[in-house]
Amino acid sequence: MNYNINEQMLGFDRVLSWEGQVPALVKEGEHYFLQLRAPEAKKVTFTMNEEEFPCSREENGIWRMKYTVHAGIQYVQLKIDGVEVVTPLLPITYGYSRPYNYVALEIEAEDFYCIKDVPHGSVRREYFFSKVTGEWESCVVYTPYCYEKEKEREFPVLYLQHGHGENEVGWTASGKVNFILDNLIAEKKAVPMVVVMSNGMVQTLDGNGKRIVDFRLFEKQLLMDIIPYAEEKFRIGRTKKMRAMAGLSMGSLQTSITGFDHPGYFSSLGIFSGFVSDMIQGSPLDMVQREVSKNEHMKILDDADMFNSIFDVYFRAMGDQDPFWEHFDHDDQILKEKGINQIRRVYPGAHDWNVWRMCICDFAQLIFK
Most exposed among 79, 108, 277, 279, judged by the fewest C-beta atoms under 10 Å? Predict the structure, then answer.
């Protein structure tokens, strides 16, 4: 197994099982099994894609289940006697609005996101004070390998967003965007760029003092806080030509809203597993009590000639098994009727990181050229 596909935030090396415990993932013949030694437990399950799978108890107190996902990255939730548990024996990322386990298996003939013997960039965590929230916030920034060497060079910058329930570490912890860009830059398929990844699940207080998420605040925070901070701290472009924005799922909607509302900021937009119409505002996903969106940001689509002239790349992509396909198809029809030019990709897969890795790999090769 390629070692780095299990690399995680808390440790590059995998966690070894301790005395009395067993490895969480084992291969026997052609099959993988998830397992845990919990002799006092009455019931052990793993949840994947919101479906719960029971484990069978063996005489030695080991609970096991056959892992039926054949390849790629998959979120998994261990549950012991009805209590959700994060196990240190599987890699940990951030999903479903909390630390979350995942399993990563190699995909045959697919290594574009793996660590290779090429020059590597840096990933750093930054901190800034937000005028929007009145609190300290954090972002993760990737700089290409040549950033440290070419001291006089100004680099283009991609503002890259995660999806609902994730945060600023998603694109590096799960998406491996740093390795993807390292490889593309080494192969001269992508222009060296800085990538700024911020938390789009912007937290604030409601009228009762309860902490909630307002995803619509991100547009304001990006323009007022994040971009000014990044442009002061890093040698990055301060013009439309030198900026791009992209995001997955909720982040794709934030990209649509921000990019459409402020077309003078970004030269290219990437909509991954994405939404043009606002299907979050006023839905059960929206923690703010408000009406369904009137999609004011979509007025820009009424002038196709202008829209087609102001974005160098307008990229939309989806997995062919994505449960949100109807929204993608709905937006397809709108864009077609309006005469909007786009680069449209459909990948094998669902609403997950296996698709989003392919999205960023293709999008990164198109921008800043």
Answer: 108
Calpha distance 35→62 (Å, rounded): 7
Angle at 355 between CA 194 and CA 219, to 5 degrees: 50
Whether pLDDT at 4 is above 90:
no
The single residue listed with the structure tokens 């030695």 is: 60
Q: Look at residue 112 and tell me whether its pLDDT is greater than 90.
A: yes
What is the C-alpha to C-alpha distance for residues 36 and 55, in angstroms, rounded to an integer? 9
The count of residues in the chain is 369
Query: How far from chain centre, in Å, is Cα 221?
Result: 19
Tokens for 350, please give them. 């669902």
Strand partners, 346: 318
253, HSE (Cβ side, Cα atoms, 13 Å)? 22
- Rounded mean pLDDT of 96-102? 94
What's the token pair of residue 317?
């992509």
Rounded CA separation 135/205 (Å): 12
Assess contact for 94 and 199: CB atoms under 8 A. Answer: no
CA 104 to chain centre: 16
184 neighbors 158 (Cβ within 8 angstroms) = no
CA distance 350 to 362: 17
- Cα–Cα distance for residue pair 156/171, rounded to 1 Å: 18
Residues 6+ apart with CB under 8 A from 49: 75, 350
* SS3 (DSSP) at 240: helix
Cβ atoms of 245 and 226 closer than 8 Å: no
Does pTM top 0.85 for this prediction?
yes
CA distance 182 to 352: 22
Contacts of 334 (CB under 8 A, 6+ apart): 276, 277, 298, 301
β-strand pairing of 31-37 with 25-28: antiparallel
